[in-house]
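Fig. S4 source data, part A: sequence.
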Amino acid sequence: MTSTPTLAGVDLQAAILDRLDRLLAAQRRAQFSDRWIDLQEVADFLGFSVAQTRQRIVTLPGFPSPLATGHARWLRSEVEAWAQQHRRAP
């Protein structure tokens, strides 16, 4: 019978697999996060109506610049970073 290697009582194989699962999940989140989103998705993410987002949010100085195509689109990761910097303390 083969025993599983341990370090200080921790199953190394299980610890490595757990770490790989967490790394893969983080990579999937990053891939999802770095995509282009439209005004509706920006509004949904920030919790405002489309009209409020268009009139009051995306016009703020420092808000990420949209991709200049027929319809404005923003990188989700940039909107997330902006929101993190501008969130109100509870």
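Fig. S4 source data, part B ends here. The chain has two domains: 1-33, 36-86.
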